[in-house]
Amino acid sequence: FIALVLIKFEARTLWKIWFFLSVWFTLAVAFNAFIMQNIAIIIALILAILKVFKNNVYIHNFTELFIYGGLAVIFVPILNIFSIIILLILISLYDAYAVWKSKHMIKMARFQTKLKLFAGVFIPYGNHKTAILGGGDLGFPLLFTGVVFKTSGWEALFVIAMAAIALWLLLIKSEKNKFYPAMPFIAAGCLVGYG
Fold first, then answer.
1. Left if phi > 0, otherwise alpha if psi is -120 to 50, otherwise beta: which for 128?
2. What are 6-64's pLDDT values in tens digits?
3. If you average pLDDT over every residue of the chain, what do you get?
């Protein structure tokens, strides 16, 4: 809701501050899994500054991968299989509605892309073209995989494989310059992999 309000009023400065703080916090949490907290905070700060003020596709995608790891560190311990399945279903329904019906997700994607502060990854292809995959399309399957790993161990690899296949099928079947809700497809892959 807050994101939609910021986009509606084109509050670019507030969006940048919010984005910067979110990136810094989640990167610090993610890096702290590997290095001492003080060093993690400093490295996260440097990368957050680069991401917001000197962004390119490499910095952007590198930091995005760690951001979702940071979110997983926070949320996987408090989720169980039942809750994450319900969350996947709800977020998939929301994603489909937000892209196909209300189209507010498309407005959000365009606003973020215009500012070059997009929550998600850029996938370069062709002559300076990029496809985008939203942050939720990475974060929610990662949460699901983390919960499956926590409860079932390495069987979570099936979830990763099937989610990747579902995304690949969506990407090869999708038309250029069209927006698609990825979560229904990725969630289906997650559930098939878990099954």
1. left
2. 777 777 788 888 889 999 999 999 999 889 999 999 999 999 999 988 878 889 889 99
3. 88
Instruction: Quick: pLDDT tens for 99-157.
Output: 889 887 777 777 777 777 778 887 777 777 777 788 889 999 999 999 999 999 999 99
Closest CA to 105 of 34, 39, 181, 32: 181
Query: Based on the number of CB atoms within 10 Å of its own CB, is 25 exposed (0-12), middle (13-18) or buried (19 or more)?
Result: middle
Structure tokens at 180: 């698609």
CB 12 within 8 A of CB 115: yes
Encode pLDDT of 64-112 as tens digits.
988 888 888 889 999 999 999 999 999 999 999 988 898 877 777 777 7
